[in-house]
Amino acid sequence: MSTHLIAFFTLREALRRRVVLAAALLTLGYLVLYGVGVWFGYRDLQETQGGPPGLTEGVVSLMLVGGLWSLNFIASVLAVFLSVGALSGEVDQGTLHAIAARPVRRSEIVLGKFVGFTLMLAVFIGVSASLMILIVAVITGEIVGGSWAGPFLMLLASMLLIGLALAGSSRLSPLPNGVIVFTLYATALIGGVIEQIGDVLESAVMFNIGVFSSVLVPTRAMWDMASAQLATGGFVGELSAGPFGASNPPSGWMLLIAFLHLALTLGFALRAFQRRDF
Amino acid sequence: MSQPAAIHLSGVSKRYGRTLAVDDVSLSVAHGEVFGFLGPNGAGKSTIVKMVLGLTYPTAGEIEVLGQPVGSLAARAEVGYLPETFRFHDWLTASELLHFHARLARVPANARTERVPDLLELVGLKDRANDRISTFSKGMMQRVGLAQALVGEPRLVILDEPTSALDPIGRRDVRDRIRELGERGVTVFLNSHLLSEVEQVCDRVAIIDHGSIVAEGKLDELLNAQEIELRAGEGAEAAARKILGKGGVRKVNGRLRVRVANDDETARLIRRMVEAGVPVYDVRQIGDSLEDLFVRVAERGDV
Questions:
Q1: Residue B105 lies in a domain
Q2: Digit-coded pLDDT (tens) for B242-286
Q3: Which chain A residues have a beta carbon less than 8 Å from that of B56?
């Protein structure tokens, strides 16, 4: 089996490419800005007298969820940019010819790339989310962030996008594939907002459109589940409605749908790439 | 039992949409042979190479490589390939590229550490071993590509236009490498549009044009051969193929064109066709057609 060779090769390539370096530097800059924001926000919060019990913890938690939402967004963009040309782009450039002529199965190339990109995103999310939780903890003295399930669900959202981009990349060249994957990602994002509005207005149609978009591309649903895991404090649910989170986190079924989605996109990528002419 | 051919194609065609890129090609390359595949750009050479490597699937026909069905991992482990594009992941250094390909080719770790520097020296890139490929010239990329093709100590080496980016000295080096491979008993399949290149290193050649093989054999014999055009009755094409063996028979504008070595062969062909019950109405010699063909399909090159 050569899957691990391709996976480590993919990881090494991602680490050496400028896109990851750029994302890392931007994220670092963002974390600095975020730290400054949390510092002033927390100072103002301490000057506020009264308020319901648990206010401080709730607001700190909300600041963290908002920050992690941005990291989740960067991770999603990174996932798409890394994988959108991984198969077709390399076939068109000719860089995959010599590798695919080796005693390597096509499935090992697809799975190796998937594993490589996933490892890359795991490192990115793991490091940046840990730094963010650390920043909040150092400034406020509050250790928030809930369980490990939160970052894992963020990673799962990125994995869904990698699967989708690889499926597209087995047939489409990078540009149209990128347009399609980003459109689907945006559909899920907007679908989530429509679902929330539908919930407030008690519009079944709007709610169902939102649910449908989440089944189509469960990335947004994964974030909603993640934010529910990350947020601590009783009233955060109501406060975090809006782009950062759902008032009603999706049920456990969504997790099953996400894994099914991943199996389907990867299955398609494997099958289509197997049949592809170089 | 005789050894199976290193490469065997039978009735292979490839269709892209409405374009027939490769049309019913049958070909055998023996073990240890240095075989030249000559034709103009766009004739279907690279498509055939990619089908032999299992990178592209034939629309029809059968392909065997080193006695195994095409695409089998066991056969691929013993094949080295230099793609026409010779584009590699340019964020790697030359040494890293060779190590990676050696691992993919299942070369054991201790053999890798010895072989990689040796190969880089062989292609004249010893001093650039730890430089990234992105800093290489096209010629250097082609040379590192040749080293990559040899890193698994293959029994069969497939080189697709291996000198396209090289200067005359680089071309001579590659020809020397090919000769060395041939002397060591490695089968070489050389795709080229340069007649001189093929002429200097190959035991046998096939000439391809518009997706079909138009001639096959030893190059000097091909150059001295004549072509005749026949107007004959039903079953003429099959009879001619049977009498001459498979190569050198084609249909042009409904007439049969047959390549023969000399006048004796022409006489023998017609006698045998008549004996086989195929009436022959008209025979005429086509002047210098093969030479025209060479001019058309192959460039002399500046080597």
A1: no
A2: 888 756 788 877 788 888 877 888 888 899 989 989 999 988 887
A3: 277-278
Which of B76, B88, B145 has its CB closest to that of A102? B76
Please check whether residues B192 and B254 belong to one and the same domain. no
From B50, B104, B145, residue closest to A102, measured CB to CB: B104
3-state SS, one letter per residue, for A99-117: HHCCCCCHHHHHHHHHHHH
User: Which chain A residues contact residue B55 at CB under 8 A?
Assistant: 97, 100-101, 277-278
Q: Judge if B3 and B62 occupy the same domain.
A: yes
Cα-to-chain-centroid distance, residue B240: 25
Interface contact A13-B91, CB threshold 8 A = yes
Distance from CA of A119 to the nearest CA of B (A): 19
Of the residues A3, A95, A97, the best mutation for testing chain B's interface (the one with the most B CB atoms within 10 Å of its CB) is: A97
Interface ipTM: 0.84
Closest Cα of chain A to B225: distance in Å?
A: 37
Does the residue B85 lie in any domain? no
Model confidence at B290: pLDDT above 50: yes
What are the pLDDT digits (tens) for B187-229?
Answer: 999 998 888 888 888 989 998 888 888 888 887 777 777 788 8
- pLDDT class of B156 with cuts at 50, 70, 90: very high
Residue B48 covered by a domain: yes
Q: Which residue stretches of chain A have pLDDT < 70?
A: 49-53, 145-146, 232-248
Instruction: Report the alpha-carbon distance of residue B10 to residue B61 in Å, rounded.
Output: 6
- Residues in chain B closer than 8 A to A2 (CB atoms): 104
Residues B82 and B146 sit within 8 Å (Cβ to Cβ): yes
- Looking at the fold, whether B188 and B237 belong to one and the same domain comes out as no
CATH number at residue B60: 3.40.50.300
Flag if A98 and B101 touch (Cβ within 8 Å).
yes
Instruction: Please list, in sequence order, all residues whose beta carbon lies within 8 angstroms of the beta carbon of residue A203, skipping any fewer than 6 positions away.
Output: A197
Within a 10 A sphere around the Cβ of B236, how many other Cβ atoms?
Answer: 22
Q: Count structural domains, chain B.
A: 2
Evaluate whether A111 touches A84 at the Cβ level (below 8 Å): no
Residues on B contacting A at a C-beta cutoff of 8 Å: 50, 53-57, 73-74, 76-77, 79, 81-89, 91, 100-101, 103-106, 145, 148-149, 152
Containing structural domain, residue B158 = 1-78+154-222
Give the number of other Cβ atoms within 10 Å of residue A238's Cβ: 8
Same domain, B164 and B289: no
Question: Are the beta carbons of A43 and A150 closer than 8 angstroms?
Answer: no
Q: CB-based contact (8 Å) between A95 and chain B?
A: yes
Establish if B212 belongs to a structural domain.
yes
CATH code of residue B234: 3.30.70.100
> Residues B74, B162: one domain?
yes
